[in-house]
Amino acid sequence: MGNRKARTASPAPAAGNGLLDRRALLGSGIVFAGAMTTGIGASPTGAAAEPLEVGPWSLGPGDPVPPYGQPSKFERKVVRTLANPKLEPRSSAARTPHHLLNGTVTPNGLHFVIARGGQTEIDPDKHRLVIHGLVKQPMVYTVEALHRYPMVSRMTFVECGGNSAPLYSKEPIQADVQALHGLCSCAEWTGVKLSTLLEETGIDPRAKWFIAEGADLPTMNRSIPLAKAMDDAMIALYQNGEAINPSNGYPMRLLLPGYEGNMNVKWLRRIKLVEAPVMAINETKQYTILLPSGKAWQFYFPQEVKSFITHPSPGLNMKDPGYYEVSGIAYSGNGRISKVDVSADGGKSWAPAGLQEPVLSKAFTRFRMAWNWDGAPAILQSRATDEAGNVQPTRAAFLAERGEPKGTPPVVAFTMEHFNAIASWGVNTKGEVSHVYA
Amino acid sequence: MFTRDELAFAFVLALGLSAASAADAPRLGQPITPADLTPWDISIAPDGVGLPPGSGTPVQGAEVYAKFACALCHGDKGAGGPGGPLVGGGPLSGGSQAPAKLIGNYWPYATTIFDFTRRAMPWQQPKTLTDNEVYAVTAYILALNKIIGENDVMDAQTLPKVKMPNRDGFISRYPEKR
Prior knowledge:
The complex is a heterodimer.
Chain A: E1 13-15, E2 19-20, E3 81-82, E4 92-95, E5 113-115, E6 128-133, E7 139-142, H1 143-146, E8 152-159, H2 177-181, E9 184-193, H3 194-201, E10 209-214, E11 221-225, H4 226-231, E12 234-239, E13 242-243, E14 253-255, E15 268-274, E16 289-290, E17 296-298, E18 306-311, E19 322-331, E20 337-343, E21 351-352, E22 354-355, E23 365-373, E24 378-386, H5 395-402, E25 424-427, E26 433-436
Chain B: H1 4-23, E1 30-31, E2 55-56, H2 58-67, H3 71-74, H4 111-120, H5 131-144, E3 154-155, E4 170-172
Antiparallel strand pairs in B: 2-3
C-alpha cells in the first residue's frame, strides 16, 4: 500500500461523527485523508516500518501436523468463559468470545453452552431416539439408522433466551461482548428433517404440539408447536461438518431455527406428540417474561431481530485517530436481515452498513462500516431490521414495554429474557470503549 | 430457454420426485409398543395425565427431604441455598426489587413440581426417588408454601386439582401475532 498513489477524493461522510459511505469498504481504492494520503510520516498509522527480518519459522521445519488441529498457541486467550467451572449443582454457562472472532461461523469448541447437568457424554451405539404419543406407529431410531436418512444442511444461529440479559440493569454493566452477548452462536447444522421421520410414524390429527426431551441429567423437556416440526425442525447430527460437539448434544440435538435456544433440546432422546403443552419447568418457571403488570408472557418462541457491534467493543480499545472498521453481528429468528444501520453519535444520525454475503435466514449476518474516528468522544450503535420489517428497538422503547430494571445484578444473572434492544459502546478521547446507555 | 409454464411444470415434476423419494425413505425406524417405552414416557400433563400410582403426605415428604439431603442445595425447610429457595416469593408487580419467581408466587401448575423432581432431583443422583417419595416431597413443598394442608395426601387424583396461586398469571405469545 505504501507506494500506491493516493486518489483524490476522500470518501463521502455517510452519517455524523465520521461514518463513511459503505462503498469505501468495498475495494474502491479510496485512501483516507489524514491517515494515509501522503505516505510516510503523515500520521501515526503511517509511521515507517522496521526493516524486515527473516523469522526462525522460515529457517527450519515446523512440527508434525497433528491428527486434529488446534488453534495457534498465540490464540490461547480465545476461549469460552465459564460460569460454573467446578460443576457445582447448578447450570453451567460457557460464552462465545465474539470480540475475538470474525465472520459468521462459531467454531465448535467456542459455541455457547448452557447445560443443567454438565457436558453429557453419550455412547452413540447405545443412544436411541423414540417418537411416540399421537402418532400412528411409535418408532425407535438408532443413531446408525438416522445416518442413512436423507439429510439437509443449513446455517442457523442458536441463542439462549437469556442472552444479553446483563443489559437489563439499572446501570450499564462494564463487561465485554462475550459477557454481555456471548450466549448466541452460529453454525452449519446437518441432519434429518423431523418432518421426514414424522412422515414415517404418521401423525394423529389431534396432535398440535410435541414434547422434546434430552437424555442428560435433568432430562430437560420442552413443548413445541407441531407446525415447527413440519416447517424447518431438524434432528441435527453434524455441526460445522463434524459430529455435534458433546457440549452441544452429541450424538444428536433438536434444531429449531430461530427459536429460543433452550427449545433446541440437546442429547435428544424422545419426541412425544401431544394435544397441548406439558407445562414443563422450562416453560413455566423459566423462559417466561414477567411484565410490569405482574402477568408473564409464556411460549415466546422466536428470538427477535438483534445486532451488536463486536469491533470495537468494551475491552477492545482503539489506538490513534484514523480509519477503523466498525463490525458486528446481526440476526433474526424471523428470517433474513435486510438492513443494519450504524450510528457513531449515539443515534442522532445513521448510515446503512455493508452486509457480508451470503445473507441467510435465521443465521448470523456480519455487517461492516467504515469509520474515520477523529479522536473525539463517540457513541457507537447498531440497529438491525429483518425481512419481516421488524426493527431492533431502542433501549427506551424496550423498557417502555418490559418495565424499568430494578437493580444492577451480577453480570451472570438472568434478569430478562429475549432482550434485543440496541446496545451502545462509548468511545472516549483515549480510544477506550465502555458500555453506556444512550 | 424455458417458458414460465415449462419451468413451473418442471418444478412440479421435481416436487413429485422428491415426494416419491420420501415415500421410499429408508424406513429404518423400529416399531415399539407403548409398554416397552414406559421407562422413558415420563411426561406429566397439567391435567394429571401421566401421573403414576402412589401417594405421599407433607410429613412423609419432610423425611424424604432429610433422607436425600435436599437442604444442602435448598436450605432448611426450603429457605434457600445454591439451588434456590422452595418457599417465599412476594407480589409479582410494584415492588422496588425484581420479584423472585418461586413456586408459591409464580409456578402455575403443581404437576410441574412432581415432574421436575422426578426427572432431575436430587442433582447428584436423579431418578432415584420412588414415586411415593416424589409425591411426598411434592406435598411437603406445597405445604411449606401453605398451598395445601399439613395432612393433605398428594396422588394422581389430588395433585392436578391443586390450584396454584399464580395459575392465571400467564399470557401465551403463541401463535405469534404478525
